[in-house]
Amino acid sequence: MQFLVRIDTARAYELPPDERAELIARERTRGRELMDHGVLRDIWRVPGRRANVGIWDVPDADALEQALESLPARPYAEIDVTPLATHPLTAEANPG
């Protein structure tokens, strides 16, 4: 199941610089792990904000919750999740 996930991490930038740098390094490592496992399919920065949007691919909403909770920046993040469904145009292009 795919989800569009918007994560705003602006609050993390209120941390002292050394704590923030360590948090960002851990977040980057975890993000790469999630990408390697196919959970985080794509990610983009939101220009002008301390935020990103991504396509997450997991079996269900519970698995998404577990993946999001594994993010080191989770305590500082505002997260918005939108479940995605197949669009008829996509279904026509990829008959199953």
Automatic annotation (TrEMBL):
Keywords: Aromatic hydrocarbons catabolism, Isomerase. GO terms for molecular function: muconolactone delta-isomerase activity. It catalyses: (S)-muconolactone = (4,5-dihydro-5-oxofuran-2-yl)-acetate. The keyword Signal does not apply. The keyword Transit peptide does not apply. It holds the Pfam family MIase. Residues 1-88 form the Muconolactone isomerase domain. Its EC number is 5.3.3.4. Pathway: Aromatic compound metabolism; beta-ketoadipate pathway; 5-oxo-4,5-dihydro-2-furylacetate from catechol: step 3/3. InterPro entries: Dimeric_a/b-barrel, MLI_dom, Muconolactone_d_Isoase. Coiled coil: none annotated. Homodecamer. Belongs to the muconolactone Delta-isomerase family. This is Muconolactone Delta-isomerase.
